Fold this sequence. Notes:
alpha/beta; Rossmann fold; Dihydrodipicolinate Reductase, domain 2; 2 domains
Amino acid sequence: MSTEARPQPDADPSATAGQPPHPPVRFALVGYGGGGRYFHAPVVAGAPGCELVAVVTRDPGRAGLARAEHGVRAVASLEELPDLGVEAVAVSTPAATHTELTERALRLGLATVCDKPFALDAAAARRTVELAGELGVPLSPYQNRRWDSDLLTLRRVLADGELGEVVRFESAFERWAAGGPPAAGGGLLRDFGAHLVDQALQLFGPVEAVAAQARGAAGAETDWRVQLAHAGGVRSELSGSWHQALPAPRFRVTGTRGSFVVESAMDGQEEALLAGRTPAAEGAAWGAEPPSRWGHLALGGGPLRRVPSEHGRWPDFYAAFARAVRGLGPVPVDPRDAVATTAVVDAALRAVEVGRTVEVG
């Protein structure tokens, strides 16, 4: 069972060694819908070592927005990017297109970030990861929520060891949104579930068995619950909902000596980006959480203690990816992690279908 926080990207070592810094990696976004416009473009633009230079979209309105908001070139196909000097792409398109577009980008020699869900099943995820390895091209799933304020804070609490041995982990992405989840996301369990499962695997290791319940047809769920049996003994309870007026705590972690709870529904970076705030504009203040959103720690029968939150750091993902493109370190998220996450989500969907616990292959 892993409770250690992963090291986060440092500054470019060439700069600290007295050498001139490497030129920024020239990025393009593939897609400029809500994900590309709000959760990729401003994050790339605010990440050290990155330069956003192009957007791939066939929608004239979105092309105009990209040019107006970021001063980038807008092109109609991936194949036009190498001639623009693009070195890396982020795929943020409907889920059903992720595998095709990611593999096309890799074959063009473009270092590739793929948004979640990385693929629609584990077999497809595995084939894409193998292709990247064969071609020697950097590939990373966009698990930006490893850099959420609440998860970074939880990692610190676990590393401190005050909770004792962790026995149960509860994690929820719940909100109220009229009309249900977007059809392009591959289903709420694949969409939200990709983040929650990835976090559970990072914190507590491989999963042996999965049980799950969902409301709504497969691929069109409005809410779901998943129970994971980790090989190390921890039990995780994950939930996602699009129609929840009173969301569950974002995290509750129970150990043999106490519990840690984060009541706030979501990390504040999403809200800030949707409001037009950016990492580039806010600098070191980016990702700070007000005290009203800090978590609480309770040990035994002792008093409740407020735990200051770490800053959320989504730009760190792209800073680390840029360093990987320059050969200065590993990609921020190992693409094999996407295979493991997708296998657990596949098992959860199977568990919903058959109404029983399913082993993870």
